Amino acid sequence: MSIPNLNLKDLVNAGVHFGHKSQRWNPKMSKYIHSTRENVHIINLNVTLQLFQEALKVIDETVSKGGKILFVATKKQASKKVADLANETGQYYVNHRWLGGMLTNWSTIAKSIKKMKELEVLKSNPKNEFTKKEILKLSNKHEKLLKSLNGISDMKKSPDLIFIIDTKLEHIAVAEAKHLKIPTIGIVDTNCDPDLIDFPIPGNDDSRRSIEFYCNAIKETINSSEPIVFDENKSQPVSNSESSESKESSAEDTNQNTVTEAK
Q: Which pLDDT does position 123 carry in this prediction?
């Protein structure tokens, strides 16, 4: 397991401590608020750092076991960041609009994904007999589906973990995950309800710097995560590096035994 070495200075530089104006707060966030400055809530970064590191451990464990993560962030300042994060780490994302039933009504969503792929083939086929007007209509329909479904086009089943930026905005995604008992990690600003999230991370969910900070830490965690394999001689799972060491040790023992028998 390799979790990025984060410190309070990193969080301060990313502006993670800035919450919303004090009149726009959720009382359930009081335990995560340090103080109020110029009518703006300041988030307690000692708590944020601890909870973020715990969340990164959950991400590492999920990926190590071969699990898949769905990243959800449809607000403008986060949409490209989560798409890049998912593409660079081989995960899934929703960054345009959360369609109702995207998880709870997967059969209908799967049909829409199939339709999207069919339209892509139709409009790109040079031998099609469609008029320019018909091709334009197909392209528009394809683009609309692509925006909403491109990030989950290869998803065959429910994700093992969902990471959400702005849990208040993405309340439908939170509700569907809760209904299906899918674990959630969420950036909860001072206007959010942390009780709805399994692994809440109190922090700024509006700043581009903060969002980039979260994404970079998650990307580093996933890219350095080692898949867990099972050693035939042990009942407990081991990491790939441990498995390799075990194999090398076994090979050395075999060579030593061969030499002894030869003598």
A: 75
Each residue's pLDDT tens digit, 38-49: 999 999 999 999
Verify that 135 and 171 share a domain, yes or no. no
Cα 50 to Cα 6: distance, rounded to the nearest angstrom: 10
Domain span including residue 128: 104-157
What is the model's pLDDT at position 1? 53
pLDDT in tens, 197-208: 999 999 999 999
Supply 161's token pair. 């973990």
CA distances from 145 to 73, 98, 111, 230 (A): 17, 12, 11, 41
Spatial CB neighbours of 24, under 8 Å, sequence gap ≥ 6: 190, 191
Shared domain check, 175 and 74? yes
Sequence-distant (≥ 6) Cβ neighbours of residue 160 within 8 angstroms: 62, 65, 67, 68, 69, 182, 183
Q: Does 248 score more than 90 pLDDT? A: no
**Same-domain pairing of 145 and 244:** no
Neighbours of 46 (CB within 10 A): 11
The CA distance from 61 to 77, in Å, is 28
**In angstroms, rounded to a whole number, what is the distance separating the alpha carbons of residues 228 and 63?**
9
Give the chain's domain count.
3
pLDDT at 186 over 60: yes
Residue 169 has pLDDT above 60, yes or no: yes
CB-count burial class (<10 Å; 0-12, 13-18, 19+) for 67 = middle
* The model's pTM: 0.84
| Residue 1 is assigned to a structural domain of this protein | no
- Residue 247: burial class (beta carbons within 10 Å; 0-12, 13-18, 19+): exposed
DSSP category for residue 157: S
